[in-house]
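Predicting structure from sequence has reshaped protein science. With that in mind, we have picked out one protein's residues alongside their backbone shape tokens:
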Amino acid sequence: MNSCEYEEQIKQICAKGDFSSLDIFEKNLIAIDSYSRALAKKLLETRGNHTYKVIFDDDLLGLNIDFGSGTRLYNDPKSEIKARLNELGAKYFLYPAIFMYGLGNGALISALLTNENHKTIIVFEPDIQVLFIVLNFIDFSAWLLKNRLVILESGVCDFSMYCDLCGLDGVFKSCNIFELLINTPAYNVFLEDFAKVGQEFVQMFQWKLECYGADADDTMTGINQTLANIPDMLSGIPLSKIIKERKNKVKTAIIVSTGPSLTKQLELLKEIKDKATIISVDSSYEILKKQGIKPDFVVSLERIELTSKFFESPVSSFDDDTIFMLSSLMHKKSVEYVKARNYSLVLKPLNFELGFKDNDFGYLSGGHSCAHLGYDLAVALEHEKIVLIGQDLAFGNDNITHADGHAYKRVANEKYDKLEQALAYGGKGQVLSTAVWGVFRKEFELLFQKNKTPAYNCTEGGSRIEGAIEKPFKELCEIIKNENKPKFSIPKPLSVNEQSSKMLSYTAKLKSAVELGKDFIKKASDIDKTIKIALKSNNVELMKNTSQLAKELKIIFENKLFESFFMQLCGTTIKTKEMELTKIIVQNIELNEKLKNALELDMALFKSVSGFVKQINESIEKYFLAKNKV
């Protein structure tokens, strides 16, 4: 069944009338289609093609499936499901998320859904025929549409899907208590796949923790520098103008990174330099300049002063047609160097910067490297294909880090690098890489999964990046040399009046954030005293009431203004404490002890968050409000 045939069948189902008029399978199908078209399509293809025998009496609890050769889903479904439900209820009754391998006959999952403590239940089913049969008997559609229940085919889940699951209610806070449960012993034949699903979920949790686990000092450096750079950002070229004037005008974008393999691609790049949009990472700029290859954009996003070295060469006519696009959180010295050129400062989609809601100067690159910024820019400009060169993400010959001409080229060193092996470009063998490059690689893979623009990895060296099409650069150059790229003018900055208006808007938002922060600090101080009194009393009712007060204060974490301006620094602490609190809640201990542990955790949370909020308030005052009297 191709996509058009699938679409036609879905239309025919929907044409039957309103949702309530559909049969059970059709309701489930439409619900699954809302989050996984691939699975819904596969279920439609299974209709009429399943070979298992359904054994059914007047009670859905007794539904059984005969796989042939004397094997069944259950020996005695009713007694086995009741026993399994009692077993799970005893240990997992308070768990906010349940991770289940196998749908079984659906009765166990239906029973678990009646427990409101389970905010989300995720089911991985390895057998599409079992899934098809059960979805004909039990209507899960209401739960599926609310994301309270998610059913996936285990063998086709990718990392992007696991990351999406992490955003569901109760999932990430279950990180410390994660356990993949087997529905029924019949699924023991899939133990290899069961282990794979569990491992991939753990890897996703580790990845998310790394994303949240940014160093607080590093985060504050970015916030401070963003605040200090706002006036220069507003005086530069708006991203919105660049996109408006250049969107969908050039077929190919080439992102030039400085991996060891870049050197061998430079001659080919010279041949097609006037046919494609060339996006150079900061460290490639001087290398391209020496080769006479003028980039359309030079992108940079490192917070450290050392990065400014890439821009310290004297301004020349070579820079006339190039836009230097820097992240707003970069060091002031980098900004000062590019201000003599055509420059654009852009906001990253981080909480603090998202709080400004300024689409004229944002938002690009949630990734950690310049190449991610370049990729996001290429997507925003709507190129038909995006080409990566020099994107090794691995050490080259003689364990060298970068291409010839890179300012900080060096040899691999265990003292500075957390070394690890990675799958080589081409899919054969391993190459030496680092944990940091592994993060960059995974970020690219997520970007490729979420964007439809074909990405070609023409690095021809280093490590494989899943999701990119590996192709020799020479072959693509044969195509690119027949394409056209118009001559672009450099967009103008906003008018003085427009800049002034934006400054007023930024000032108002930051002043509101400061007031909200002060209010939180006061309330946190008050409740700290209340918690100490409750703990000293050891009175269950008083501790219950105090716990409720703490819960009410934590609602502020969901406040949009708080989330925007404080969560970037506080997020790691809040998420970590949430996971610790979840672990306390599900423990089988005396209520008195549980309340005491939870209150002590809340007290530590409010103290930490208050410190971070105060730090951000002081930065707003020092780096923006004191310097920009509007």
